[in-house]
Every structure is written in C-alpha cells, then in structure tokens.
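Feature request disguised as a bug: please show the residue count (313) next to 2-dehydropantoate 2-reductase in the output. Example input:
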Amino acid sequence: MTEPERPVVLILGAGGVGLSLAGALAGVARVAVACRPRHAAAVRRDGLVMEGVWGERTVREIACVAGPGEAPPAPDLVIVTAKGFDTRAVCEEYADVLRGRTVASLQNGIGNEEVIADYAGTVIGGTVTTNFSVVGDGHVRVKSQSSPMVFGLWSGPDADALPRLVDLIRSAGILVEASTDIRSAKWSKSLLNLSVNPICALLSIPVGKAADPRLQRVIREIVSETFAVMDAEGVGTRWPSAEAYLDHLFAVQVPDFATAYPSMYYDIQAGRRTEIDLLNGYIADLGERRGIPTPYNRCIADLVRFREIDERK
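Example output, currently without the count:
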C-alpha cells in the first residue's frame, strides 16, 4: 500500500516562528519556506538545526525559496509568519500564489487577517504563545510553549480547511486547538503583547520586572483603555473586565515569562522596526475613530517609534 501524498505547505516569513514551524512540519508535509539568503544558504548546506521543546534535531527536508517564482505554484496551505508591518508587502509579492488558496496567519498583533483576506481564498487566524529565538543562521531554539497554538476560521468558503490545518499541526507533535471565535483569541493574545512588551522593550527589562508597582500603574491604564476600545468594537474575551485580565496577567502570565525578554526588545536592540502599530498604535487609532481617549497607548506607541528611529541611526 502506498503512503498518502503529503500536503504542500508554504511558509512566508522565516524568522524564529517560521523556521521553527518549517522544521516541525517537515516530518509530516512537503515544506517550502521563504528565507533570507543567509538562512537559506545555511539550511541548504547544513540543514535546519532545531533545539528546545519541539525536539533536538537537524532537518534537511526543507526547500528554501527566494521569491514567488521558486514557490510551489499550488500549495495546499500557506502560513504567514512575517512581521505584521510586512503583511501587505508579502501578500503583494506572492499574490499569484495566494489567490484562491487557504492562508493561515500566525502573527502578532491585530489586523493581519483583514489584509490577507484581500488576496486569499480562505483565511485562518492563529495565535501562538511560544518563546522562539534564532540562535544563528539556519539555527533556531524553541524555549517553551506555555499554551497550545490556537487556530480559527476567519473568512472564506472552505469550512474544512480549519480541521485539516489543526490535524496537520497536531500530527507534527505541536500542541494545538481549534477556536470557534478566533477574533476573541487574537485580542486575548494581544493583551499580553501590548500591556507588557513595549514597556520591557523601552526599559530593557525582562517580563518579570513588569510586576514592579511603579510599572503596574502604567500597565493598568493601558489595559483599561484597551478594554474600553474592545467594548466599543464588540470584541469579548474570556476575561469580562480589565480588572479580571490584570489579575491573570500579574498572577499567571508575568510569572510564566518572568525571565524572558519580548521580541520587541530584540527588535529595538537590533535596530529593527517593531510591530507597535499593530498593538498599542492600533488601539490608539481605533480609540480615535471611536472617540475613546487612549493617552497611555498613544504615548507608549510614540515612545517605541522614537526608539526605533533612534536605534537605526
């Protein structure tokens, strides 16, 4: 009996998340990943080196592509892991590949799925609470996974796309769940990123330091503004109020990630653009449209933008 044909997966955005996911899925799918030249050269020469909770191994069954001309013409699934500020540009570049396909977003921030929907057939939103890092060229480490990946159908006609994706991710040994309300899940994940990450990035401190009472006051205002905007947008989460989320943040999430530095910290240190416009900047813009004051979110977003420019000089 012949084995069933493995699905073809194209991953767009080969940072820590994209490369780690490519390595994990290579055992259950035919994987192509859009890589920076330095990662592509290392993977082609030595394979992708993986460390951490997703396994210790070298993966050679990955195709690195430099552009849409090298990509599989009709992938069964496309997963976008690029930084949120690059979503539109990536979709434009790979527009011919994405047209009519199932595309999943596994990105930080809010608003990526709306962009992808302009190009794809069926869109699946996703969240991941996992500590990824790039150790070197073609070398990644998955330090921890504190909760399962979550995927949910965002838009499009293919209702079976979600269970197929979840089954594929699970078959690779990754914790994953399906959500019936992915919008709520995306906002729930973004609460941690917008409440703690910018402060840790600005002050060059690990997440655990956010429990300092002087910082807690600022974080409480950021979260209160965000819940006011969420209420106006009709978005709910499993936390019924800002206070309920703040209790969870300081009792569970901050201790869980106490020694970790957020990715925004590394972006600023490396002089890279951050995703602040899809986090606090997004909240501030929505608040302005809704007539809701968001001075703390606006201030944090402006400070991070200043650091971005300052570090790139």
